[in-house]
Specification:
The structure is a single chain. By secondary structure, this protein is of the alpha+beta class. About 45% of the residues lie in helices and about 15% in strands. The longest helix has about 40 residues.
Length: about 290
Amino acid sequence: MMMNELPIRAMRGTRFLRAKVFAPVCAGLLAASIALPGAAQSANTTGTAAPPATSAASATATATESTLANRLQALYPSTRFGAVNPTPWPGVFEVVMGANLAYVDQSGQYFLFGHFYDMKAQRDLTAERKDTLARIDFETLPLSDAMKDVRGNGARVLAIFSDPDCPYCQKLEADIRELTNVTIYTFLMPLVSLHPAAHRKAVSVWCAKDRIAAWQATMWRGEAVPQADCPHPVDRNVALGERLGINGTPTLVALDGRMLPGAASKEQIEAWLQRSAVSAQGDAKPGVMSR
C-alpha cells in the first residue's frame, strides 16, 4: 500500500462514519418537526386550553414581591419598609423606605442606593418614582379650611401653605400678584418655632370680615391686621402640613398633586401649572396617594 493512500482511506472512513451517525439523527429531527405541529393542533382541539401565561406570571411576581417584603421586615425589624415593586432590571426590586427609594435583590442582602436610569430612553426612573410618591391627592385636601381667591376665570387651581410672617411667603405673594385665571386656596400654616407671632396673625386674618383683603394687605403692603379671634382652622392646617410632609413655607400644591416648595417666580409657576394642565388632559397622576 502506498503511504499516500492512507489519508484517502481515512477520509473515506470519516465520510462513512458521518453518514452512519448523522443520517438517523437528521431523519429523527425532521420527523419531529413534522409531527410537532400536528401534535400541537391535536392538543388544542382535544384538550383544555392552558391559562394565559401573563396571568400566571403576574401572580408569581406578586407572590415574589410579597415574600420579599416579609423577608426584608424579618431581616431588618427596626427598619420600616413600604411597598416592594418590580423594576425593568431582572432580579432587582424597588423598595420604598419613607421618602427614599432603594433597590434590592431577591435575597434581601444586597442594597443599592442611588438613581436608576434607563439610558436608552434617557429617563431617570428614580426621580420619576419619587415625584409620583411625593404627590398629594388634591381631592382629599380640606379646602373649607383654606382661603379661596378666584382670579379671572379661575380655571387653574393650586393650593399654597403659607405663613404670614414668612419673608419667602411675602416674596411669593408679590411675585404672583399678577397671576390670572387661577383659583388659589391658601392654607394658613404659621411656623411658630420661627415666627412666634405668626399664629396670632394667621388667626386674625382668618377672622377678618374680608379674609382675602386682610391677607393681601399684610402680604402685599405690610399692613398690620387688626387682632381678632373666632373659631379657626389654623391648628388643623399645621397638623395637616405635618401629615403631608410639608415642613417649610411657602409650599405650593398643584391639582395633579405635585408640590413646589419655596418662593418660585411667576414664570416658574406658570410653567409648573402648565404641567398640571397636561396631567388633567390625560397625562395622568399615577400612584397619587391620599395621606
